[in-house]
Amino acid sequence: TGRAKDNTQLDRVEVKLVSGSLSSTQIATLDKTTGNWTVKVSPSAVQVGQALTVTATAFDTTGNSSFATRGYQVISDTSAPVITVTSHKANETVLKTGFLLQGSVTDDTSVNGLTISVATSTGTVLVPTKAMTMTPAGDWAYALANGILTQDTNIVVTLTATDAFNKQGVVTLP
């Protein structure tokens, strides 16, 4: 996507893609009023692990043109995020006065978000789905406060991580 402008009237935007040994040129969809343009890049137009050079050339109705070039690295999202809980194990006894749950999350691209929810084993929600904060290294912690848990109640903690391509990794601790 991009935006082109001209002192007369825009005619078209051509987008050249070069990735490894592949090269193609496409005519972008152009809104001539706003100058906004888009082009859909097919996976077959890029090579994973290679640089991608995108050159957008805008043409006006009198034949003048100008261009802008940007470079990108093509990556492949091969797996969902992996969530590791380091502080507790499944079916572990915890104090009803609260506890600190800790761990990390990793991904082959990047992690966009991590959520937590806590419910009883019968489905009563104790902590509705809540966004968590992670360090740049992917470390996280969540303190389950005093007053949420009751004696001899089984809980289920669900952690969900989402990566840049909306793949999700889920860990459930009963």
Short recap of the structure:
With 174 residues, this protein is mostly beta strands. The chain has strands at residues 2-3, 10-19, 22-27, 29-30, 36-38, 51-60, 65-73, 82-85, 99-106, 111-120, 125-131, 139-144, 155-163, 168-173. Strand 4 (29-30) and strand 5 (36-38) form a beta hairpin.
Task: Note down, in words, how this protein is organized.
A hairpin with a 4-residue loop joins strand 6 and strand 7. It is elongated and about 80 Å long. The chain is 0% helix and 53% strand. With 174 residues, it is mostly beta strands. The two termini are 45 Å apart. The strands form four sheets. Strands 3-2-6-7 form a four-stranded antiparallel sheet, with no helix packed on it. The chain has strands spanning 2-3, 10-19, 22-27, 29-30, 36-38, 51-60, 65-73, 82-85, 99-106, 111-120, 125-131, 139-144, 155-163, 168-173. The protein contains no helices and 14 strands.
